[in-house]
Design a protein that fits this description.
The chain is an alpha+beta fold. It contains 9 helices and 20 strands. A hairpin with a 4-residue loop joins strand 12 and strand 13. Helix 2 (93-103) packs across helix 3 (108-122), helix 2 runs parallel beside helix 4 (137-149) and helix 3 (108-122) packs across helix 4. The strands form 4 sheets. Strands 6-7-8-3-9-10 form a 6-stranded mixed sheet, with helices on both faces. Strands 13-12-11-14-20 form a 5-stranded antiparallel sheet. It has helices at 43-51, 93-103, 108-122, 137-149, 167-184, 195-201, 219-224, 229-234, 267-273, and strands at 4-12, 18-27, 32-36, 58-63, 66-67, 78-81, 155-159, 187-192, 204-209, 212-217, 241-250, 253-257, 262-264, 280-285, 290-292, 304-314, 318-324, 329-335, 344-350, 356-358. The longest helix is centred in the middle third of the chain and has 18 residues, at 167-184. Helix content is 25%, strand content 33%. Bound molecules: adenosine-5'-diphosphate.
Length: 367
């Protein structure tokens, strides 16, 4: 186990693509760090530079106390698990798992001991003689994990390891990785485009876009206090509702004026938003912070709005309402007992203590 430090790292590929733009990351010893962002944002390139599979254009990477810029991948003492498993088709599970140890000339009894230990952890003891083509996707992924575990590396680097699995297996393997992590007590860097994986696995999440780090924090901070509009909309399902409007003042109180409705700002936000009076601004509210008024005992008219309910989507444990204010479409996530009529106007209550405001130009969070 080791801490990993990425300092001012940039990667420019041949042809001039700046895939990673001055990235800084501090991954603590035994920490599980998730790099998340849309396809092409530079996650894999960052991971591959840590692994030593990609040259760094500028900047420095340390693993433990060692500057590894010029250390070849095989000498970095890290193990990488890929999306496509990268198993040797002509080798058995045992041979695949022990390959790295055999290359490094480990004694036979040590190889057998480590493979046994890993297969027990992963529940694949019965598969040791099989070839990769005789395994299911989930089993192959376990073998790939096993091959990494037997090395007892200083850190594990995972590049979208669950992307090739079907939805159900993905959820199952997610919890397995969680357990594995608790058991191995080592450092993990995990790349995914899936925000649910990021939220559920990470001690810390790094949200990337266009090669740059947008925010690095623990999952709940990322969710509750996103640094900008991009982070707010990338993390969370359904995505946060965003509406453009204006801050206005009525009888010394500030309101957000969406065009079709006005809602009063909570006192806490007045100080910061006073400077934005009269200006265009972006308002964000998560689907779970909007309620059907019929189920709210106390609501002021100042945070109640009217909107047409266009679609009601029951999901069993909850219901999504697709709403239209006349200017903006938005989604409310309400309790399973809520069944408003479709194509009728309804009253909705917004929890104004939970809303976000973003600068229209910079898209940075104002409050
Ligand atoms: P992500 O993992 O977030 O999907 P990548 O790190 O794979 O993103 O890619 C970041 C950017 O670098 C993309 O624009 C991609 O097209 C580009 N890129 C990746 N690999 C190469 C390469 N070998 N040569 C040139 N450009 C590349």
């Amino acid at each position: 186990m080791a801490q990993i430090s990425v300092r001012d790292v940039t990667k420019i590929y041949k042809g001039g693509v700046k895939a990673v733009d001055n990235v800084n990351l501090g991954i603590e010893n035994k920490e599980f760090m998730v790099l998340v962002g849309p396809s092409g944002c530079g996650k894999s390139t960052t991971l591959r530079m840590i692994a030593g599979l990609e040259e760094i254009s500028s900047g420095k990477i340390w693993i433990g106390n060692r500057l590894v810029n010029d250390v070849p991948a095989k000498d970095r003492d890290i193990a990488m698990v890929f999306q496509n498993y990268a198993l040797y088709p002509h080798m058995s599970v045992f041979e695949n798992m022990s390959f790295g140890l055999r290359l490094r000339k480990y004694p036979k009894h040590e190889i057998v001991r480590r493979v046994q230990e890993a297969t027990e952890i992963l529940g694949i003891k019965h598969l040791l003689e099989r070839r990769p083509r005789q395994l299911s996707g989930g089993e192959r992924q376990r073998v790939a994990l096993g091959r990494a575990i037997v090395r007892k590396p200083q850190a594990f680097l995972f590049d979208e390891p669950l992307s090739n699995l079907d939805a159900k297996l993905r959820v199952q393997m997610r919890t397995e990785i969680h357990k594995l992590r608790l058991r191995l007590q080592t450092t993990f860097v995990y790349v995914t485009h899936d925000q649910t994986e990021a939220m559920t696995l990470g001690d810390k999440i790094v949200v990337m876009k266009d090669g740059k780090v947008q925010q690095c924090a623990d999952p709940m901070t990322i969710y509750d206090k996103p640094a900008n509009k991009f982070v707010a909309s990338f993390i969370g399902s359904p995505p946060i509702n965003l509406m453009q409007g204006r801050i206005i003042k009525k009888e010394r109180k500030l309101y957000f004026d969406e065009g079709k409705f006005q809602v009063k700002l909570v006192e806490d936000m007045h100080r910061v938003l006073a400077a934005h009076e009269g200006k265009e601004i972006i308002f964000g509210i998560r689907a779970e912070d909007i309620y059907d008024k019929l189920f709210v005992s106390e609501a002021s008219t100042e945070n109640t709005i009217r909107a047409a309910c266009e679609v009601v989507e029951p999901l069993g444990s909850e219901v999504y309402l697709y709403l239209n204010s006349g200017k903006n479409m938005f989604i409310a996530r309400v309790g399973a007992h809520n069944r408003p009529e479709v194509n009728r106007d309804m009253d909705l209550v917004l929890d104004m203590s939970k809303v976000h405001f973003f600068d229209r130009e910079t898209e940075k969070t104002i409050v």
